[in-house]
């Protein structure tokens, strides 16, 4: 069942020196799903497994680039940490372009996204 995610009532706009994705930045670039929508969905639905985040506008069901980040957000929520993605939006989008061309995740994206992001290869 696809649920209609509600918008985050208080999305965080980008601050000039803010590291990482803002709530208004797309975390799933295939389906243009903003980070704030995913965070609101996770808070509201409290999905038992990260794969259910796909019910939020199809996030993670395209190229797969964002799946480790969606898993990280789910883990952050489950452990009571703030949900955040510490990757510069341009680097995140550039990493996806390279990933789609080569099937490999560029070095450094995982470390800058968050320390608990799963290893990729
Ligand atoms: S960026 Fe989310 S599936 Fe491609």
Account of the protein in words:
- Helix 1 (35-45) packs across helix 2 (67-78).
- A hairpin with a 4-residue loop joins strand 1 (26-28) and strand 2 (33-34).
- This protein has helices spanning 35-45, 67-78, 89-102, 109-113, and strands at residues 26-28, 33-34.
- By secondary structure, the chain is mainly alpha-helical.
- The longest helix is centred in the last third of the chain and has 14 residues, at 89-102.
- Bound molecules: FE2/S2 (inorganic) cluster.
- FE2/S2 (inorganic) cluster binds at residues 28-30, 60-66, 96.
- FE2/S2 (inorganic) cluster (FES) binds at residues 28-30, 60-66, 96.
List the SSEs and their pairings.
Layout lengths: L25 E3 L4 E2 H11 L21 H12 L10 H14 L6 H5 L8
Antiparallel strand pairs: 1-2
Helix pairs in contact: 1-2
């Amino acid at each position: 069942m696809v649920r209609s995610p509600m918008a985050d009532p208080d999305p965080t706009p980008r601050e000039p020196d803010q590291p990482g994705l803002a709530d208004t930045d797309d975390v799933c670039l295939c389906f243009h799903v903003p980070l704030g929508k995913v965070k609101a969905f996770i808070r509201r639905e409290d999905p038992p497994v990260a794969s259910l985040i796909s019910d939020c506008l199809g996030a993670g069901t395209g190229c797969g680039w964002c799946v480790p980040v969606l898993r990280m957000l789910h883990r952050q929520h489950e452990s009571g940490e703030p949900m955040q993605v510490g990757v510069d939006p341009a680097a995140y989008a550039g990493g996806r372009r390279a990933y789609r061309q080569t099937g490999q995740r560029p070095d450094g994206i995982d470390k800058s996204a968050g320390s608990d992001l799963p290893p990729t290869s």
